[in-house]
Design goal:
about 375 residues, alpha/beta, Rossmann fold, 2 domains, globular
Length: about 375
């Protein structure tokens, strides 16, 4: 039985032993550092034994760009990769590395269950935006560490993807958002980005004008149609020039204008942007609207302001971690939202579903961390929603 080589990051050099029993038996990891994520880098040079890696999209039902890029990068450096959506159960065994990618925090408990199941036999990696604020919880639950932020090894991995980033970062540090914490407050521009149907940049209107034009031109010269600039534009940096630059391009595919009205202090900028967008039909002006960060009357007024100025609100509910367990105590439920149990809670307040100009569905996502219901996200999504 011989040992095979791997390249360790300097702080961990000499602390990982890999042994292969036979040519047919995949190498096993004997980790002396307790499964710390991304603690080593397998060498892609000739003579190394390929590792078996399971990449799990822990947010099954949602497209996971990070998991797709990670899988492609691992294949590119010579490893055998199996991908899975959701909990693979018994099929999670037999791998040298199990990599868990979590988009939304309410999927963290499933990732934890997988990690506890395989950490004795596999190296466990865990990352994704859903884990950024749960690093201490993850370590407490699993004894492992989260890989926070972006991974430069595969963030710009090229491949056939449904989504793309032309730039990372956002200069606006919203208190309820982790994008600027994960990606930074200064832009990192990828001039060679690969166009995809969904553009996920956090703040398109704040990008340098030259780079905005580059994005448009790169799509125009590709065979890819932009269907959605999903994270959208920022009212503070939006002006007539932004409208003239982007509208002819977005209108070709009827892609929506996405921006947000999350706080009362943004009212003037949002109304100004909606006035500039007045020629655009309402179904293409999709305005994210935070609920729960201000008194419900103020939230309701912001929703009505969006409608009055020709936009369509997409509600997102913010709830504290220690929110009461009973649905009767949830203002969001008393406004006509569907509780995860499937029951419609009605009350004297107006039905928030009616605030969607297309009478869309109103859904809630829940987080069961600490065995408590935490309502994190609500979206009024119409039948043809691209979100």
């Amino acid at each position: 039985m011989g040992t095979t080589r791997c390249t360790l990051w300097p702080p961990l050099r000499g602390r990982l032993v890999m042994e292969a029993a036979t040519e047919r038996d995949p190498p096993r990891l004997d980790s002396a550092f307790g499964g710390a994520p991304y603690g080593w880098q397998p060498s892609a040079t000739s003579g190394d034994v390929a590792l078996r890696v399971l990449v799990v999209n822990s947010s099954a039902g949602h497209y996971n760009l990070g998991a797709a890029k990670l899988a492609d990068w691992l294949k590119a450096v010579g490893h055998e990769v199996v991908t899975c959506r959701g909990d693979p159960g018994l099929f999670s065994f037999g791998y040298d590395i199990v990599a868990l990618s979590v988009i939304f925090s309410w999927h963290a408990p499933m990732a934890r269950d997988i990690a506890l199941r395989v950490r004795g036999t596999s190296e466990v990696w865990c990352g994704g935006p859903g884990m950024y604020a749960l690093q201490h919880w993850w370590t407490k639950e699993t004894g492992l560490k989260v890989h926070p932020g972006l991974d430069a090894r595969f963030d710009r991995q090229r491949g056939s993807y449904r989504m793309t980033f032309a730039a990372r970062g956002c200069p606006v540090a919203c208190s309820f958002c982790v994008a600027w914490l994960i990606e930074g407050r200064t832009f990192s521009l990828d001039w060679d980005f690969q166009p995809a149907p969904v553009l996920c940049d956090n703040n398109l209107s704040a990008l340098p004008v030259e780079f905005q034009e580059h994005i448009i031109n790169r799509y125009a010269t590709s065979l890819v149609t932009l269907k959605d600039a999903n994270s959208g534009f920022e009212p503070k940096s939006f002006d007539e020039g932004t409208y003239r630059r982007w509208e002819p391009f977005l209108a070709k595919s009827k892609a929506p204008w996405r921006f947000a009205f999350d706080e009362e202090g943004e009212r003037d900028e949002v109304v100004r942007m909606l006035q500039i967008l007045k020629p655009v039909p309402p179904y293409r002006k999709r305005v994210y609207c935070l609920i729960g960060n201000e008194p419900i009357e103020a939230c309701y007024d912001r929703l009505q302001t969006i409608i009055a100025n020709g936009g369509e609100p997409f509600c997102q509910a913010l709830r504290p971690r220690r929110w009461p367990r009973t649905s009767s105590d949830m203002p969001i439920a008393s406004c006509g939202a569907r509780h995860p149990s499937g029951n419609i809670q009605t009350g004297a307040a107006s039905d928030l579903r009616s605030l969607s100009s297309r009478q869309g569905r109103f859904t809630l996502e829940s987080d069961l961390l600490d065995r408590q219901l935490i309502v994190i996200y609500a979206a009024a999504a119409g039948p043809d929603s691209r979100s």
